[in-house]
Amino acid sequence: MLHVLYLSGVILLFVSLKTFPSVSSFHVFQYCLSGHPTLPCNVLKFKSTTIMLDCGLDTTSVLNFLPLPLVHSPRLSKLPGWVSKDGTLNLEKKELLDLSTIDVILISNYHCMMALPYITEHTGFTGTVYATEPTLQIGRLLMEELVNFMERVPKAQSATCWKNKEIQRMLPGPLKDAVDVWTWKRSYSMQEVNSALSKVQLVGYSQKVELFGAVQVSPLSSGYSLGSSNWIIQSHHEKVSYVSGSSLLTTHPQPMDQSSLKNSDVLILTGLTQMPTANPDGMLGEFCSNLAMTIRAGGNVLVPCYSSGVIYDLLECLYQFIESANLGTTPFYFISPVANSSLEFSQIFAEWLCHNKQSKVYLPEPPFPHAELIQTNKLKHYPSIHGDFSSEFRQPCVVFTGHPSLRFGDVVHFMELWGKSSLNTIIFTEPDFSYLDALAPYQPLAMKCVYCPIDTRLNFHQVSKLLKEVQPLHVVCPEQYTQPPLTQSHRSDLMLELQPPPMPYRRCSVLNLPFRRRYERVYIMPELANSLVPSEIKPGISLATVSAVLHSKDNKHTLQSVPKPPPVPPSKKRKRVIEEPPVVLAPKPLLSGAVPLEAFLATLQKHGITEVKVEETADGHILHLQAEDTLIQLEEDGTHIVCDNNEPLRTTLRDLVLRFLQKL
Amino acid sequence: RSCILVSIGGKNIMLDCGMHMGYNDDRRFPDFSYITQNGRLTDFLDCVIISHFHLDHCGALPFMSEMVGYDGPIYMTHPTKAICPILLEDFRKITVDKKGETNFFTSQMIKDCMKKVVPLNLHQTVQVDDELEIKAYYAGHVLGAAMVHIKVGSESVVYTGDYNMTPDRHLGAAWIDKCRPDILISESTYATTIRDSKRCRERDFLKKVHESIERGGKVLIPVFALGRAQELCILLETFWERMNLKAPIYFSTGLTEKANHYYKLFITWTNQKIRKTFVQRNMFEFKHIKAFDRSYADNPGPMVVFATPGMLHAGQSLQIFKKWAGNEKNMVIMPGYCVQGTIGHKILNGQRKLEMEGRSTLDVKLQVEYMSFSAHADAKGIMQLIRMAEPRNMLLVHGEAVKMEFLKGKIEQEFSIDCYMPANGETVTVTTNPSVPVDISLNLLKREMALGGPLPDPKKPRTMHGTLIMKENSLKLVSSEQALKELGLNEHQLRFTCRVQLQDPHSDTDTLHRIYTHLKSVLKGYTIQHLPDGTVMVESIVIKVSSSTEDPNTKVLLLSWSYQDEDLGSFLSTLLKKGLPSGLC
User: What is the pLDDT of residues A169-226, one digit of tens each?
Assistant: First the structure.
């Protein structure tokens, strides 16, 4: 699945991690559906540094499997293995990229780091992972949630399902016979998560991080989520921008830093909106009105969502909406093992928030209004449906819970509970999963379904505007962005049209980035710099010849003065060997210019050479120094001195000629 | 107080803008006439950086920006930006409203001044302009305290502000990377203290409070709403929990919630332990510390009260003080500096009879204690920071001269770097020796690296040669050939031809061969070729042989070389003039 092409210069290697082991210990097989440009995983080789850009875990494949109910569900377990028809399988071929050779991993946002333990653990990985603090903390929460979802499933239940030969028989060929299949699809443990995250080095926006002295990387605000970043990867003369999951909308995160992307040689573009036709604001309005309608009719609302991200915006929107819609008494529940942490963490990252929210902490007030919703008991959060929730739970209500795939997490319980009543509504807000596929195992379903995907990432219109602004020399993007979506093939506005056209990549492809590296930074040490003698060769242009010793250490090059040879101790032996060939310390510079006849003759005269016979030739002049019996041939691009047996004269003449020439 | 002006690479930066609280007159503020006699400071300063919210580091900021006049950027961290205006306003109230001073900044000036503030995130590289960049590091000391790295071109300065190298109850330890600045400007408050004496002082404080409570006394701790108050609250809170004490702790009204809120919102700036557990238990939500009501002051039994303001000059703290002063069982602990003229200052100076308004006097019988809790780096910490940053020069500020002298000696001895300790108003000039960044052509570099072999040989350094092209602001180092090409210059060939006569009774070809053998034995490590066209080539030097027309035994050697081989050519012509040694075959 991975092809490596080496061409000269910089090599970009794209790997899809979709084939990495996925989430469940026993139920979920890893499938690869279509390429997933919003969960990228690319590897950039740049100046002998191997940099992995993001490592998103594609969980769309879980849609092919049965939901994991928290309590045993007779209905679900009787369903035959449900496999989507177009499910194709790719076994992982990790050996094509040796993960232990990766020097650093740059994370752009918390959604794009979910595969981290698969890369850093048990692979020989010894590098460093760079991420911002919110990305690390919220990423940790999302991983913790995933592990929790998987580990709390009753064991007996999972074992029976796995043993269901029916399911395994229906799988495509390779999997049916795979012996060690269950080892590679085992979900990571909390221990592995902690170990993986201990390799994360925190960075701040615009922080310059030196990698081995060769490359400098720097995260920039991307405006998509708390702490989300685009990355600049540059040396003194080359600049690659990695744009992943960026947003220009005013939601809670700090606005996107666009100007720092300017002057890029290459811009790698990933993580555009998955819903190019859905306007997030419109979706938000639809979300609110559907929610209010259901509640008024006495039904419950189920919102399957991630525990961080858009949920903050949904809660903020509801905070403004509740009173006007007369929903003041409706309870809102947020159920997730990390619900409390997510809500708390969101309040402490003021530095990473938009200006409006940032200035709230100066008052001091919590940046997000969900603090007030919690304080006034309108919003309650629980780690799971067990415990306090079961006793405090009142209907009708609104429940935010995960996982948005409807395959595991507390949402499975609510689907079972509310699916049969047409009074209830499920509102999909996360764009990562097809809602029809998500719902399939629950059919027939009486519950109303509303699809309001909110994806704040850049759309094609915004991208082309952005690219016009920052003007990268070359754009590299997933091939999906270079053609309109399959279902809307007439929509040429739903693709990237650039001049020059973007360089598309597909999963496992390797691109050679169009760089011509021509220069490298070197530092001239002060002592040497002081000894240089520049001469002006043209107006505004000076030259100096440099003879120096090159020191290269940690990918930094310095030029130092040539050390003086130690004085040779006068020994007898030395004196005897007079035929010691010259030690060439500095080869002679190249010469340029011409020797003007009149001026040269005048100089000769000054040095006592008066008897000069000048003869004109086709290309110049021949000077005959009669007293010395020496010839000097002067031409436009050459001087030839013919002088026998008179070394002092020859050197004098040489020096006189040199006076008229430029040395370089 | 701190206010330092740094000129680096043509940029002027003001580091901190502190106020001296011991003075009531002009000396309170830094003397900005050092910078300019008349006119606004904007023209002279590229930026102002405030390290933390203590007034001896930011107290003169509104005076400088609004009254002297400065409109450029002022950098400080988010917590400093949040807390500093509150402290400034508090202080302004004391000086103007209570003491009726004029020529002081107003509330509006504080607000206007804060509008010029640009918040700074840790480790973020902020480009002030094209050349000047600054970067903040965590400094401990107080919430939001930062050290700054200032860089212009290849020259750089690190200013520490106040910092703390050991984590304390709510803050982490200062950290900086090996940034090798030209100058490290460090505070040196505790220049000679070697052990972390803060722990001892804390134990002392707890012991005193505990003793007082044990004997049924009441303890008053006058504080300002932010900073030290939270630190002491954490201290008492954990102590109460550990010792299972029941005596109530109160925090005077209004500010508690608000002040603690700052700490909650800036939890990322506290130490690792607090950050890790804040979801489960926020250290700044105190269980034992409750809001104070003025009626509680008369309650019987022991209690601890934190009350504002911190210098006992007005308000609740003064009221409580008046009530409790007469009982020797009670205690007042002053955790900070007091301005002259305040009651706090008087009682700290041992005054036992106070004149109050309305000619009444107050006998002070309660115990008076002074304790400073500020977290500063001790000598060990300062040395540790020097090891971290590896500066080329050291500059000590903010400390007592005698102690600094001692530390200076130690630094110079251990790190063999120059250490300066300027007095107020003194200027120190440190000359840097910057290397010159140049763009080298990759071809030249690669060629050189390939020739150099895989391992460097320190005994035989290889010399590389190139031409430096200086054009406008760019410096490019290329091979000489490339330089000619790039500048469109013609190459001028300088050649030499030299005839040498030689007595050698052999045929021409034999002579040539003899020369070849001779040179082979003399010139080790050179390329010598005997070409079929009847020439010998030494590197690019051509040697031909012909017999003299008169005497066949006299050979005429024709040597021809270019200027690039001048040394060798000159050597060869001299060598061959001496003739060939006999014994050659």
Answer: 444 433 443 333 333 446 788 999 999 999 999 999 999 999 988 899 999 999 999 9
Q: Peptide bond preceding B170: is omega within 30 degrees of 0, i.e. cis?
A: no
Residue found by looking up tokens 């003399």 in the block = B522
Residue with tokens 């972390």: B196
CA dist B20 and B96 (Å) reads 16
According to the 3-state scheme, what is the secondary structure of B328-362?
A: CCCEEEECCCCCCCCHHHHHHCCCCEEECHHHCEE
pLDDT value for A339: 95
**N- to C-terminal Cα separation, chain B:** 90
State chain B's mean pLDDT as an integer: 85
CB contact under 8 A, A534 and B468: yes
Closest by Cα among A343, A367, A347 to A357: A367
| B133 catalytic per annotation | no
Whether B285 and chain A come into contact, CB under 8 Å, resolves to no
Residue A549, helix vs strand vs coil: strand
Let me know how long chain A is. 664
Backbone dihedral angles phi then psi of residue A621, each to the nearest 5 degrees: -135, 150
- Which of B134, B494, B500, B526 would best serve as a mutation to test chain A binding (most A beta carbons within 10 A)? B494
SS3 A177: helix
The model's pLDDT over A537-578, given as tens digits with 9 standing for 90+, comes to 888 888 888 888 888 888 888 888 887 766 655 554 444 444
Q: Which of A289-303, A511-525, A554-568, B514-528 has the lowest mean pLDDT?
A: A554-568
Enclosing H/E stretch for B250: strand B249-251
Rounded to an integer, what distance in angstroms lies between the CA atom of residue B385 and that of residue B391?
9
Return the SS3 of B132: strand
Percent of chain A as helix, strand, coil, to the nearest 5: 30, 20, 45
In whole numbers, what is the pLDDT of chain A averaged over residues?
Answer: 80
Contact A148, A91 (CB under 8 A): no
Q: Which of A517, A564, A588 to mutate to test the interface with B (most CBs of B within 10 A)?
A: A588
- Beta-carbon separation of B445 and A522 below 8 A: yes
Catalytic residue (one of B66, B155, B187, B202) = B187
Q: For B485-567, where are the E strands, in sequence order?
A: 493-503, 528-531, 535-538, 541-547, 554-562
Q: Is B272 helix (H, G, I), strand (E, B) or coil?
A: helix
Chain A partners within 8 Å of B477 (Cβ):
522, 546, 559
Q: What is the rounded distance in angstroms from the CA atom of residue A654 to the CA atom of residue A640?
A: 10
Retrieve residue B527's tokens: 């390329």
Q: How many residues are listed for chain B in this entry?
A: 585
**In chain A, which residues have their Cβ closer than 8 Å to the Cβ of B487?**
537-538, 541, 543
Do the Cβ atoms of B449 and A552 come closer than 8 Å?
yes
Give the pLDDT confidence of B155-179 residue by residue, as tens digits: 999 999 989 888 877 889 999 999 9
The beta-carbon neighbor of A204 closest among B121, B492, B526 is B121
- In the structure encoding, which two tokens stand for residue A211, read together? 């990698």
The C-alpha atoms of residue A622 and residue A635 are separated, in whole angstroms, by 9
Evaluate the omega torsion of the peptide bond into residue A500 and state whether it is cis, within 30 degrees of 0. yes
**CA A635 to CA A624: how far, in whole Å?**
14
Strand spans (E) along B80-230: 117-120, 125-127, 132-138, 146-152, 155-159, 183-187, 218-222
Residue A376 has pLDDT above 90, yes or no: yes
Q: A443 in the Ramachandran plot: left (φ > 0), alpha (ψ -120 to 50) or beta?
A: beta
CA A564 to each of CA A85, A525, A561, B433, B459: distance values in angstroms, whole numbers, following the listed order: 78, 16, 9, 21, 12
- DSSP category for residue A288: H
Contact list in A for residue B438 (CB cut-off 8 A) is 521-524, 559
pTM of this prediction? 0.84
Q: Which residue has the higher pLDDT, A34 or B377?
A: B377
Q: With beta carbons less than 8 A apart as the criterion, state whether A138 and A131 touch.
A: no
